[in-house]
Amino acid sequence: MKAAAATAKKSAWRWVKRVLIGLGVLIFLIVFLGIPYLISWFLTHARSRPSDRVMNITPEKYEAAYRKVNFKSADGTSLAGWWLPAENSPAAIIYCHGLFRSRLELLERATHFQKMGYAGLLFDFRRHGESEGELTSAGFLERWDVLGAARFLRDSLNVQQPLVACAVSMGTAAAMLAAAETPEIAGLILDSSFLSFDYIIAHDAKVQLGLPRFPIADEIILFTKWRIGFDSGQFDMRNALVKIGDRPILFIAGGADVRMPPEISQQLYRHSPSTRKKIIIVDGATHGAAFAAKPELYEQAVAEFLQANFGSSAARHSSTP
Questions:
Q1: What gap in Å lies between CA 110 and CA 189, rounded to an integer?
Q2: pLDDT on residue 54
Q3: Which of 47, 136, 146, 225 is deepest in the core (most CB within 10 A)?
Q4: DSSP string, 29-50
């Protein structure tokens, strides 16, 4: 009887050990593979937040002339937007919104600069607003949308003036990567930029989710690179800035931005080879909120940048025979 009991006890213990090992393996797979995979999936399937999906506000709210437009990204994705014309415009501005947002994010400033004489194209990135698209990528695939916008302005709207990209957060990455591929983007206004895809994932994982760089953030980066199809060097803003060269760039950063601290824009500013670059830090502004925090300062800085590098509507009009 004692021997049988001992055998039964050993058998039960072996079963418990197997269960514990199995649970350990399962927990390991969930924590170190499942969670990073899911985060990567959600990142690459991001859409506009609900309030940005419905265009219940249009440029009419700001008494601005506009018309609806649809065009193709460089990879054929259908994109939706608004064209804000301006007579004798010295430059046309392509507005590039941030992740989870839509063209509405930049609507107020676009109408302001239209009234100053600068035409503008507001549009939704892929999988955002009213645009189509299967995946989003924090800027890498979206560079094709910026390239498509530039082609649309040139080929369909016959815009001959210089093209300037005015971008926020994810839009800055798309704008820089697009400008690195084409000289058609003659200037850049970059609000709340990030250094690279690797950096932003590691930084956000730590600051917003409390997750370590190794192995969690590294796995999120790996899964996303595999899903989208790029390497670290292709999605590094420093490399893009070298290719952009001496084109005029205005860096804007929020002094209270914890997602993209002002040190990032300062580093990009130093790395840029442009002799026509400028940087402003807006005190108290959080991520992507420089315009909302101090609109007059923002408008003045952008207006001075545009006028210094591309001229003003009044000057263009006076020089026209």
A1: 13
A2: 86
A3: 146
A4: HIIIIIHHHHHHHHHHT----H
Buried b (16+ CB within 10 A) or exposed e, 151-177: bbbeeeeebebbbbbbbbbbbbbbbbb
Parallel, antiparallel or unpaired: strands 249-254 and 185-191: parallel
Respond yes or no on whether the N-terminal peptide bond of residue 295 is cis (omega within 30° of 0): no
Task: Give this prediction's pTM.
Answer: 0.91
- Mean pLDDT of each 10-residue bin along the chain, 321 residues long: 62 68 59 82 95 91 97 98 97 98 97 97 98 97 98 98 98 98 98 95 87 88 95 97 98 96 97 98 96 97 97 52 29
Domain layout of the chain by residue ranges? 1-44+198-228, 54-195+236-319
CATH architecture of 54-195+236-319: 3-Layer(aba) Sandwich (3.40)
Q: How many CB atoms lie within 10 A of CB 108?
A: 16
